[in-house]
Design brief:
The protein is an all-alpha fold and about 230 residues long. It is built from ten helices and no strands. It has helices at about 5-40, 45-60, 60-70, 75-80, 85-110, 115-120, 125-140, 145-155, 170-185, 185-230. The radius of gyration is 22 Å and the shape is globular.
Length: about 230
Amino acid sequence: MAEVLPALLTVGLPNTVIFAISSGILGTLLGLVLAAMGISRFWLPRWIARIYIDVFRGLPAILVIVLIGIGLGPILSPILGRSPYPLGILALSLMAAAYIAEIFRSGIQSVEKGQMEASRALGFGYGPAMRLIVIPQGIRRVLPALMNQFIILIKDSSLVFFLGLFASQREIFRIGNDASANSGNYSPVVAAGLLYLLLTIPLTHLVNYLDRRMRAGRKEKQTSLLQEASA
């Protein structure tokens, strides 16, 4: 463990964080677009979003990573080069977008219909009302679920090792697995697992904290509204 720890901290940890954050940002942006398409008043964007979400949620993560990372490699190599690094981020982003889209959709649809009706009564069109009133409230309600998805991305980044990353691009699992294969000792894999736990356990507690705070906020708001109504 002591021998592999420097490589885990200086190479594996930064690459794992880059994979998770990059795919999280790209997946969130694409997921928000898909969520907006999924609740559109027009059938074509709804169907496009539905097909995309069903496909990427129905395929195993490793299959998506291999198909995109290896299948699109020859096509995108003139743009991205021969490095599988950006293809790994692309695969994780496309998978995350499907799940994040459903998270956003459920959050947006949980906003009371009266919010839209009040916005339209004030003169907002459908698009501005969704963009300025409804969607921000829906996003706030699903922050804990988004954090859970980010934790999943941290763990799924370990599957990118199937693409054959360069030595400087290896993530936590690949470094631990390589060290274990070279030494015949599984201690490096255990060290990699412990490092994953150091990343995910604090984030899990942060998710629980956010969930409690938001639930408490809703209860306090409901109590204040009842007090105002009774007064």
